[in-house]
Amino acid sequence: MNYFFVFSADKIKKYFFLALALVFALGVIYLERENINVFAPQEASAIYKVNTNENVIALTFDISWGTERLEPILQTLKDENITSATFFISSVWGQAHPDLVQKIKDAGYEIGSHGHKHTNYSELENDEIRQQIQTAHSIITNIAGTEPNLIRLPNGDFDKRVLQIASDLNYKVIQWGTDANDWQDVTAEQIIARVTEQVQPGDIVLLHASDSAKQTHIALPTIIEQLRSNNYTFVSVSELLHYTETNGNTVISK
After folding, report:
1. pLDDT tens figures, 17-36
2. What's domain 46-253's architecture?
3. Is 139 helix (H, G, I), strand (E, B) or coil?
4. The pTM is what?
5. Which of 54, 72, 79, 64 has the alpha carbon at shortest distance from 113?
């Protein structure tokens, strides 16, 4: 009889502590219910800017066709002592002009992917989206000698499928916070005004180095001068993202 009593008391004690632990766990879950999504898989997204009060911005240049505009832009960046910027190159363009890709690399600028065919990826089937990104990756890697991990999709076009496939292929999709609209029929003064009046700390600025961007290299010196006068520092996109990690800032994504 005594043995039965001792055994039952031990079991009761065990179940009591189990029940207590369960109540505690449920209490924690209830109190943290609004933050529980931190532990859930995050949906793939595109990055537009960095949320920071520090005056850092990334100048980025898309290029998918032509040979006349890149070198004047590179020369302008050199003359203005801009050592960090990011060029998103179409692999079709890069394949046709490996010497120009090499000039971007030799200047020390970051090279990202601008995809393969310059078409809206949201209109493609999943397999073709994957093929476009992988084809561009292979070509750019072979030409530049480094593997890109940033992509700006052609025309800035994407949907949730495109974002997820890019993420599965270890790419960050990079959009922009300020669009210079320099590929349109605009003057250098209009480009300058658009950038300098819209730019904010942590911004990613969209410019172009294709032949349609006829005024970009003319507008750049004034853009850089005005932004510097406002104490802006110029970094690459990867540096901007790394800056957020080391300073506890967050990215603005959609």
Report:
1. 555 555 454 444 344 443 43
2. Alpha-Beta Barrel (3.20)
3. helix
4. 0.82
5. 64
| Nearby residues of 225 by Cβ (< 8 Å), 6 or more positions away | 80
All residues at 6 or more sequence positions from 11 whose CB lies less than 8 Å from its CB, including other chains: none
Task: Output the CA–CA distances (angstroms, integers) from residue 29 to 15, 17, 36, 43, 136, in the order listed.
Answer: 21, 18, 8, 22, 45
Distances (CA, A) of 151 to 75, 91, 136, 140, 142: 24, 11, 10, 11, 16
CA 105 to chain centre: 19
Question: Which token pair is 63?
Answer: 């290029």
* Per-residue model confidence as pLDDT tens digits over 90-125: 999 999 999 999 999 999 999 999 999 999 999 999
Measure the CA–CA gap between 43 and 226, rounded to whole angstroms.
37
**pLDDT bracket for residue 195 (50, 70, 90):** very high
- What is the reported pLDDT for 1? 44
What whole-number distance in Å separates Cα of residue 184 and Cα of residue 214? 9
Q: How far apart are CA 180 and CA 70, in angstroms?
A: 16
Token code pair at residue 229? 């006068």
User: H/E/C letters for each residue in 165-204?
Assistant: HHHHCCCEEECCCEECCCCCCCCHHHHHHHHHHHCCCCEE
